[in-house]
Amino acid sequence: MTQTAERPGTTGSPADRTDAWLAAFEDALTARDVDRAAGMFAATSFWRDLIAFTWNITTVEGPDGVRDLLGATLETTGPRGFRTSEEPTEADGVTTAWIEFETAVGRGRGHLRLQEGGSKAFTLLTTLYELKGHEEPLRQRRPMGAEHGANKERRTWRERREQEEAELGYTTQPSVLVVGGGQGGIALGARLRQLGVPALVIDKHARPGDQWRSRYKSLCLHDPVWYDHLPYLKFPDNWPVFSPKDKIGDWLESYVKVMEVPYWGSTLARSASYDEQTGEWTVEVERDGQPVTLRPKQLVLATGMSGKPNVPRLPGQDVFRGEQHHSSAHPGPDEYKGKKVVVVGSNNSAFDICGALWEIGADVTMVQRTSTHIVKSDSLMEIGLGALYSEEALANGVTTEKADLTFASIPYRIMHEFQIPLYEQMKERDADFYRRMADAGFWLDWGDDGSGLFMKYLRRGSGYYIDVGAAELVADGEVELAHGQVDHLTEDAVVLQDGTELPADLVVYATGYGSMNGWAADLISQEVADTVGKVWGLGSDTTKDPGPWEGEQRNMWKPTQQPGLWFHGGNLHQSRHYSLYLALQLKARQEGIPTPVYRLQEVHHTS
Questions:
Q1: Which parts of the chain span the membrane according to its record (predicted)?
Q2: How far, in Å, CA of 265 to CA of 527, rounded?
């Protein structure tokens, strides 16, 4: 591709216009002309950077935001080599291009949307995917495996692995300790392994995947297989669309072994403290009942996006004669045939548990406290995800990696505008279903602005159900429905604030989770948890997501106000995609590569 520093204009093909814009942008950056570069963005525009310029995950808005970002980062970033990686396209007056570039320390990929005849950027995504001199051992760089020739000091692969397992955490210390060995911790552990970062993943469960095996037996993923791949090793082509929990558990255990992720099961993290002078954590753990002290430089909490279970404290819980537990501890329906069960809550877990209990022959009542957004699974797959994550998408050349970057290229500020029309289609398609739910008395919503499930997930991580059948039980009256807050429990009933009594042998609190910084409070201190602040949410000033606007997920996958402390997690898609950027940040710090952070996460809410 031939580049020229001419001003981008309205003539030529989409490729010509993109080439001209990239050349002019690079020319401005090379000249350190921040004002000229900022002027190449539309009045309403967005630049989302995933660590390439900012060593942060952040979005700036408009020419003023671009000017501020470049003013702070341009000198140390040294960007160059902007080019398209495939033929740009044009639709509805917007030119869309996939791009590549380099920085002083790494190589990047991105996505660009141009408006105004190709003269102004509307959205720009820049991401770092590898560090120069620290590339992953992939394809041409893959390890030999076998050692040819004669060598009296030869050690086999197995001998080297056994030595590493014996020494790590004892005679040698991990650079990174990942607390939490679910899909998030495992994905990050695999990334760090490939980058040569000495890291250790620990989990309280005995085996990888036990986090899934221990949940109620009917649990399946509600996201489709194309959305849920782990890094490096995709699910086979004959893997089920929706993975049963035990199958996922077995896959995670196999993945840890195949990807050689250093992993300690049956390990509890008891306490952690940070030494500002040495830049080192002291983490006291208990492995198989034996105390071990670990001293990592970086501590990652991968204990689950939803954080700690919210278990309500209610009068009468101490006198209730039946069983009661949080949904995260629900063992499944088998012991409750013929029992009266009250499930407090009306989101994913509540519906799943109600459905399984009804199937076993329990008498089930759901207590709905606030409205819930419901979308039918097949409608979500076809309308919401089909263009990016499906067999059809793959046939159209949309790989998982391209889908991830496409999704990442849409700034959170305007993402709801893209989502609203999709959910309007779903509402129309399933109008009869929603009518029947309303007739049954179920309180429905579509999010504060009609943007549906995914924005609810990003903003608050709750308030929705992907219907795989249990909603029909409510619509048909097979699962009883009650409304209101729980006032107290008696020996044999749940009593609502309006006086309604619901007889119960079992109460399941499907009442959600708190912020992940609750884990930091338990492990480190409340002071550190407050220093970091709330984890998750965008600051959208919608229900359960208080402002001010953050522009990105609070404290996720990026530096926090506590040095050396990171949060990682989310669904399988986020665990896969964002583990790359977190791993690169950790690798850079391990190698001593300067990582000046632009716009360190501010703290507006502590819980």
A1: none
A2: 29
